[in-house]
TrEMBL record:
Organism domain of life: Bacteria
Keyword vocabulary terms for this entry: Membrane, Transmembrane, Transmembrane helix
Transmembrane segments: 80-96
Species, as recorded: Dictyobacter formicarum
UniProt name for this protein: DDE domain-containing protein
Length: 128
């Protein structure tokens, strides 16, 4: 993530943290005097790093999924409403799965459950 970057690591961590909490890129550019392309590059690199961690840990079934909490959130968009199903490993508060649907029906819950079960079933037989 930090390889080849010329700014102090502390600044990069602060910027990525602000981005993860929804702070607009333009606000960060203004507050820290950074170029918008630099902030966007850091955001993209952090996202790629998170994807690699997800693939290496979550998708490989290297989790102790004794307790998983799942919930759905109603999301309002421009002229639409969608539902997000999210699952979290309780012991670490790691988000392990998520799915989106236009309706809050059984299929949303089934798709979320399938994402949680899939890595586990790759290493141990799961009943259907």
């Amino acid at each position: 993530m930090f390889e080849g970057l010329r700014k102090p690591m502390d600044l990069i961590v602060i910027v990525v943290t602000l981005l993860s909490y929804g702070c607009p890129v333009q606000a960060i550019v203004h507050a820290f005097g950074l170029d918008e392309r630099t902030v966007a590059t850091w955001r993209d690199r952090a996202g790629q790093h998170c994807q690699r961690v997800h693939e290496a840990i979550v998708e490989q079934g290297k989790l102790d999924l004794v307790h998983v909490q799942a919930d759905e959130i109603r999301v309002k968009g421009r002229k639409m409403v969608a539902w997000m199903g999210l699952a979290m490993m309780v012991s670490t508060r790691l988000w392990i799965a998520g799915t989106v649907s236009r309706s809050r029906e059984k299929e949303l819950a089934n798709a979320l459950l399938q994402q949680v079960r899939e890595p586990l079933c790759a290493f141990a037989p799961c009943s259907s």
